[in-house]
């Protein structure tokens, strides 16, 4: 680890003031940043601890929930309102990492997790445009089982590793940000970027900008939602493919729905095409598969991840079938 | 009263009950016409009962010291820098920034390292256990991607790690071979294992195969595996005068000390290596570059050194199991009797080591066939030296063989259990030797009944519950009985009030197998002492002899050495007893041990306690050291452990995910010495086998020979939710031709498991997967 | 700045890079907490902070100023083992013993979570009272790897003791 200064932010204003310096990193639970620093993927000169800033889960003005960025993952997953009104979010969080890590990790930090691409992590021995812009991408023709099939670029085929973010993408969450330029909000889908030719930038956040809260809008249909994660062992593994979905039925028709995929792209993948295909449609296995097929029509599989479109399609069909037939949510 | 105390009392109660029967001394060799170990006849003692680990308390309180937890005054911390090319030379090496970094005490590269001899490679000399015959930090040559090329010592680990990253290296790359295709193109050679060709041919196997009415002929592939003990490799060491003291994590204590002595030009007794606790090894806790480098750096700096490899460091410098490509072809008649058995293929190794994965070993004695071809060939790659990993050979070889038998059973329409039983050999098919103890059929029958094998669907893809397709599979596991020469035991009896305490010292290693507890049990039974009067010393090169925790032979090796030492000890005691003792005039053959002393076998009232003998002789203690006898039994019998494995899987019809829902291992491994720790060894092997079947693969990038998942996050081993309750049973039939009637139990557990899982997956889905691991994408 | 480790107040390290794990092991010589991967991937370094289980390898020691940390060394009451420690011996919930302190600390934290009502990924009903079935314990303990394969004994030890109250 490169030497750095550690400072605790006393309040949000202090955090922003300290965050205006160059080469800083905001520290939440440390579950990703400390690892990245130890692997020398990240080498901030100054680490500003924002994990102790007030973090609460409160009813928002619009009837949703306002979640402080410093709220721990476990606290969010176990919150009664989240369990009852946004079950997919509880399930997504609980499907991620391990209990120890969920106890440490913050909501803000989870949003800023970096990819698990092994070439990204291999500072000494591999080329990676995300870590060292312009150096090349060794993943494209290397081990890329966990890599993207949608929205990737020549420069980068990495995936976003978060489970929580997949649910937040489906739930139309709003990200509250504050920075040198003041406060702003972002629709969740606009926080993370596709890699394009600047894969070093995972998000649209400007230097010094701090995520202060995540807002869940009121979304009654989310009460009927779930999250399904498919991975290489039964627990404690990153997703190969995951699906967050919420459905509201009107008889046998789908009145409204939300779908997002994890493990398939550089960002949590909101399945707008599939949603459009299914909104108002009669629920059927064929309709689900067709909708997923539409979503993955542009998929570009790599050497090791050609199974992902099919796996995502099948998983989505199973999840929607479960949600629309009324079995276990 | 604590559970520990209760267990001890129970054990003592058992002990007291057993003391009614004198145990004669055991024979010191096992040859035709000889007598079995008398301990076999002792049915109500400690042996076979479930005894909790004697080191349990230290382990559950965190008090057991592991290698990276010793400390010396003035100690510094080491960090390594690793090469990033597969082959070539170091063109430029810039160390100034590292040397100037805070806290740095030394930067050592080939330019300033002390001159050291290459370690003798494993198998090349009696004490040599080097990973390869390569010099360590002696020149500018790079032999694998990940090779250590610099070592930094600093006052703290953080400083050392940081400085190691500041070393800038420029390479002059040279052509390398890092792909399987390339390695094959370079040439394939007949494999030699321990100096012997891995080749057996009987009759006309190809001709018989072609003529057989039923046959399978398939290729199976297994990837590289990493041992991944949870304790990363580490050593804490110091030069004290001209003696090198190493606290290491080792499963070959004396051999490593000897090899370190060879490297540094020392006498063997100048290296003291201790390793009382090892956080898992599975074949990997041996000598690798890091101990040599740390000792050299300690010498150069004059400071004691702690070297604790990072998890990535373990992947870069500690070899794993290599990949294999295996062909299994079986020709059978309509009754399922094998007419031809062919098991051949390729393993990859390096130009500098001698470890072809010997995957045919398990095929030599498992099934009868009049025509047999077994052959391992090797191709070479520029990579980290591969090494032995739990059941080297058998673990991957049984995957191929036992999958093929399942495929043949399908062809024939014969139940796979029945097919295996039908091909039981009556003698070793290769050597022609009789089996010393073979009860695999009993293991099959008992296992099948207990598992409910008769409820298996006779055809694939017939059972489904919800999304889950359910199937059952089976396989045979096999592992040979070994007993390596070189073991010694020292038994010391010391007076303690009216009784004695026994110290049994063996240069053995304990990685959690339960060796120290089992040794105490056996010694207590032989000496006629309660368990808690016996202490076992091990894991220290100062103890005479050399024993290795490898080949599942340590228990037998210790057992024979303890027998020899006990014989000598009793002779010494009889000498000390003198003319005033009730034992006066008796020879070693006429006495047995019980109740804390010696007694005449046919006149048990004629007896004297150890304490009394010592007291009369005015001695505080008596000690005897003896080597175990040569392992002659191996020349007279074909000796193996066996298992019958039953697996039930659930394969998700939507996602292809496999969950093992039930598993039963039915073992035939001679007499079980400690039911508790043996069960754990069986389960541990089975669970590692589940990992091998479903998820484990060391990702080796064929473009540059770099391991790309050097992490426990990306190299998947089974987690709690992957592991069902595993049922284990055993025949408990003693082998009359081994010490205690026992066989090793450390490696048999993993053998056959991957095939049992693959066969169950076939039964569940109708999909036959011949390449490991069986990840979900293969089942979509 | 100071941490409270097993009831004792100790200064935080001067070097901010020092993890809580290394501070315990190298700074305080409390080596019962194990380093298995230093990557947050094995759970061997699990300790309890204010009763919650965390990974000490991913924790900067300076970040835990003022927090109460319990390690494996802090569980036994003098010579009397914590019931879970004793159960690990009885059920042979380990072989090499290296993952053991982390498993034990994790299990204690796990039971506290269950009592508080935290559901798991596999809980069929997120809003129901938590009952720790064998499978629930397996899921909740999956952050602690064991390579010797003592999984069955570990779960048995937990079920028989600390999880009994909330058992299913």
UniProtKB/TrEMBL annotation, chain A:
Residues 1-221 form the FAD-binding PCMH-type domain. Keywords: FAD, Flavoprotein. InterPro entries: CO_DH_flav_C (IPR005107), CO_DH_flav_C_dom_sf (IPR036683), Diverse_Substr_Oxidored (IPR051312), FAD-bd_PCMH (IPR016166), FAD-bd_PCMH-like_sf (IPR036318), FAD-bd_PCMH_sub1 (IPR016167), FAD-bd_PCMH_sub2 (IPR016169), Mopterin_DH_FAD-bd (IPR002346). The keyword Flavoprotein applies. One of its GO terms (molecular function) is oxidoreductase activity. SMART domains: CO_deh_flav_C (SM01092). This is Oxidoreductase. It comes from Sphingomonas metalli.
TrEMBL record, chain B:
Transmembrane segments: none annotated. One of its GO terms (molecular function) is oxidoreductase activity. Residues 61-175 form the Aldehyde oxidase/xanthine dehydrogenase a/b hammerhead domain. It holds the Pfam family MoCoBD_1. Gene3D superfamilies: Aldehyde oxidase/xanthine dehydrogenase, a/b hammerhead, Aldehyde oxidase/xanthine dehydrogenase, molybdopterin binding domain. PANTHER family: ALDEHYDE OXIDASE 1-RELATED, XANTHINE DEHYDROGENASE. This is Dehydrogenase. It comes from Sphingomonas metalli. The lineage of its organism: Bacteria, Pseudomonadati, Pseudomonadota, Alphaproteobacteria, Sphingomonadales.
From TrEMBL, chain C:
Keywords: 2Fe-2S, Iron, Iron-sulfur, Metal-binding, Oxidoreductase. Residues 1-75 form the 2Fe-2S ferredoxin-type domain. GO terms for molecular function: 2 iron, 2 sulfur cluster binding; metal ion binding; oxidoreductase activity, acting on the aldehyde or oxo group of donors. InterPro entries: 2Fe-2S-bd, 2Fe-2S-bd_dom_sf, 2Fe-2S_ferredoxin-like_sf, 2Fe-2S_ferredoxin-type, 2Fe2S_fd_BS, Aldehyde_Oxdr_Iron-Sulfur, Beta-grasp_dom_sf. This is (2Fe-2S)-binding protein. It comes from Sphingomonas metalli. It comes from the Bacteria. It holds the Pfam family Fer2.
């Amino acid at each position: 680890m490169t030497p750095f200064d550690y400072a605790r932010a006393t309040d949000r204003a202090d955090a922003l003031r300290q965050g205006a310096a160059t080469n800083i990193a905001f520290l939440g639970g440390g579950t990703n940043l400390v690892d990245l620093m130890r692997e020398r993927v990240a080498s901030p000169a100054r680490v500003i601890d924002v994990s102790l800033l007030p973090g609460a889960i409160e009813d928002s003005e619009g009837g949703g929930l306002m979640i402080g960025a410093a709220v721990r993952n476990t606290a969010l997953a176990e919150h009664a309102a989240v369990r009852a009104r946004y079950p997919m979010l509880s399930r997504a969080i609980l499907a991620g990492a391990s209990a120890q890590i969920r106890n440490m990790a913050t909501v803000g930090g989870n949003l800023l997790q970096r990819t698990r691409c092994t070439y990204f992590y291999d500072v000494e021995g591999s080329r990676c445009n995300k870590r060292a812009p312009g150096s090349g991408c060794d993943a494209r023709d290397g081990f890329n089982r966990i890599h993207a099939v949608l929205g990737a670029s020549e420069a980068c085929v990495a995936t976003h590793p978060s489970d929580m973010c997949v649910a937040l993408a489906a739930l139309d969450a709003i990200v509250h940000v504050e920075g040198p330029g003041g406060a702003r909000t972002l629709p969740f889908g606009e926080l993370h970027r596709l890699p394009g030719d600047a894969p070093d930038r995972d998000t649209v956040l400007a230097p010094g900008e701090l995520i202060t809260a995540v807002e869940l809008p009121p979304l009654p249909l989310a009460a009927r939602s779930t999250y399904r994660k498919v991975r290489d062992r039964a627990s404690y593994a990153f997703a190969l493919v995951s699906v967050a979905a919420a459905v509201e039925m009107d008889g046998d028709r789908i009145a409204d729905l939300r779908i997002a995929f994890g493990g398939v792209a550089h960002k949590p993948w909101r399945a707008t095409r599939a949603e459009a295909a299914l909104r108002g449609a009669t629920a059927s296995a064929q309709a689900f598969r067709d909708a997923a097929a539409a979503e993955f029509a542009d998929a570009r599989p790599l050497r090791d991840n050609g199974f992902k479109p099919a796996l995502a399609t099948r998983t989505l069909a199973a999840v929607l079938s479960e949600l629309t037939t009324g079995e276990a949510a | 009263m604590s559970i520990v105390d209760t267990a001890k009392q129970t054990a003592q109660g058992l002990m007291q009950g057993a003391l009614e029967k004198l145990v004669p001394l055991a024979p010191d060799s096992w040859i035709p016409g000889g007598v079995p170990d008398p301990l076999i006849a002792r049915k109500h003692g400690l042996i076979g009962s479930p005894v909790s680990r004697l080191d349990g308390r230290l382990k559950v309180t965190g008090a057991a010291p592991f290698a990276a937890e010793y400390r010396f005054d003035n100690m510094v911390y080491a960090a390594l820098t690793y090469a990033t090319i597969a082959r070539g030379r170091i063109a430029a090496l810039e160390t100034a920034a590292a040397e100037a970094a805070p806290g740095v005490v030394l930067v050592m590269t080939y330019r300033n390292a002390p001159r050291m001899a290459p370690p003798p490679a494993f198998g090349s000399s009696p004490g040599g256990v080097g990973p390869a015959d390569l010099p360590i930090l002696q020149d500018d040559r790079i032999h694998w991607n990940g090779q250590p090329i610099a070592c930094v010592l600093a006052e703290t680990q953080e400083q050392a790690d940081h400085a190691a990253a500041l070393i800038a290296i420029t390479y002059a790359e040279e052509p390398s071979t890092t792909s399987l295709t390339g390695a094959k193109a370079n040439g394939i050679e007949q494999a030699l294992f321990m100096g012997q060709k891995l080749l057996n041919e009987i009759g006309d196997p190809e001709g018989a195969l072609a003529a057989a009415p039923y046959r399978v002929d398939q290729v199976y592939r297994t990837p590289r595996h990493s041992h991944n003990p949870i304790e990363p490799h580490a050593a804490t060491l110091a030069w004290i005068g001209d003696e090198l003291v190493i606290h290491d994590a080792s499963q070959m204590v004396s051999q490593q000390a000897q090899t370190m002595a060879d490297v540094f030009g020392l006498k063997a007794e100048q290296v003291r290596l201790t390793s009382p606790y090892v956080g898992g090894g599975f074949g990997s806790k041996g000598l690798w570059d890091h101990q040599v480098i740390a000792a050299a750096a300690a010498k150069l700096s004059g400071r004691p050194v702690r070297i604790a490899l990072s998890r990535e460091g373990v992947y870069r410098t500690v070899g794993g199991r290599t990949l294999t490509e295996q062909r299994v072809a079986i020709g059978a008649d309509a009754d399922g009797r094998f007419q031809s058995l062919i098991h051949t293929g390729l393993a990859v190794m390096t130009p500098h080591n001698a470890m072809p994965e010997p995957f045919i070993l398990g095929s030599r004695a498992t099934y009868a066939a009049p025509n047999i071809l077994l052959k391992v060939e090797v191709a070479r790659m520029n990579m980290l030296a591969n090494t032995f990993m739990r059941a080297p050979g058998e673990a991957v070889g049984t995957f191929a063989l036992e999958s093929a038998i399942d495929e043949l059973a399908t062809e024939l329409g014969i139940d796979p259990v029945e097919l295996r039983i039908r091909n039981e050999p009556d003698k070793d098919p290769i050597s022609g030797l009789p089996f010393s103890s073979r009860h695999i059929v009993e293991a099959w029958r008992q296992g099948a009944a207990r598992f409910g094998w008769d409820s298996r669907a006779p055809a694939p893809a017939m059972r489904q519950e919800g999304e889950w397709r359910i199937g059952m599979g089976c396989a045979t596991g096999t592992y040979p009985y070994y007993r390596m020469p070189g073991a010694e035991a020292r038994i010391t009896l010391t007076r303690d009030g009216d009784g004695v305490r026994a110290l049994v010292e063996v240069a053995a290693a304990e990685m959690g197998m339960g060796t120290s507890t089992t040794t105490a049990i056996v010694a207590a039974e032989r000496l006629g002492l309660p368990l808690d009067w016996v202490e076992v010393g091990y894991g220290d090169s100062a103890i005479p002899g050399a024993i290795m925790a490898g080949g599942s032979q340590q228990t037998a090796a210790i057992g024979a050495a303890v027998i020899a030492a006990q014989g000598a000890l009793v002779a010494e005691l009889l000498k000390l007893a003198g003319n005033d003792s009730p034992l006066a005039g008796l020879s070693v053959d006429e006495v047995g041990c019980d109740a804390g002393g010696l007694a005449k076998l046919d006149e048990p009232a004629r007896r004297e306690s150890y304490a009394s003998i010592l007291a009369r002789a005015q001695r505080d203690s008596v000690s005897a050291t003896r080597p175990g006898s040569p392992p002659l039994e191996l020349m007279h019998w074909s000796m193996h452990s066996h298992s019958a494995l039953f697996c039930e899987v659930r394969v998700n019809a939507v996602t292809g995910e496999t969950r093992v829902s039930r598993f039963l291992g039915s073992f035939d491994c001679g007499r079980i010495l400690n039911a508790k720790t043996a069960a754990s060894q069986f389960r541990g092997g089975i669970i590692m086998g589940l990992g091998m079947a479903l998820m484990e693969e060391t990702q080796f990038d064929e473009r540059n020979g770099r391991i790309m998942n050097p992490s426990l996050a990306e190299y998947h081993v089974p987690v709690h939710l992957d592991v069902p309750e595993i049922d284990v049973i055993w025949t408990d039939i003693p082998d009359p031709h081994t010490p205690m009637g026992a066989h090793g139990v450390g490696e048999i557990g993993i053998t056959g498991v991957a095939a049992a899982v693959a066969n169950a997956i076939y039964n569940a889905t109708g999909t036959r997967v011949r390449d490991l691991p069986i990840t979900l994408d293969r089942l979509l | 700045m100071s941490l409270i480790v097993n009831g004792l107040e100790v200064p935080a390290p001067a070097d901010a890079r020092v993890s809580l794990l290394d501070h315990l092991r190298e700074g305080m010589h409390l080596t019962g907490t194990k380093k298995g991967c230093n990557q947050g991937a094995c759970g061997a370094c699990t300790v309890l902070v204010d009763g919650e289980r965390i990974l000490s390898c991913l924790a900067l020691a300076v970040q835990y100023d003022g927090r109460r940390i319990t390690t494996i060394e802090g569980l036994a009451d003098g010579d009397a083992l914590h019931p879970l420690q004793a159960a690990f011996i009885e059920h042979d919930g380990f072989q090499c013993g290296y993952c053991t302190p982390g498993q034990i600390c994790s299990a204690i934290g796990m039971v506290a979570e269950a009592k508080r009502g935290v559901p798991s990924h596999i809980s069929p009903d997120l809003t129901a009272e938590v009952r720790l079935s064998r499978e629930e314990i397996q899921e909740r303990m999956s952050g602690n790897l064991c390579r010797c394969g003592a999984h069955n004994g570990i779960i048995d030890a937990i079920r028989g003791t600390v999880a009994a109250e909330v058992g299913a």
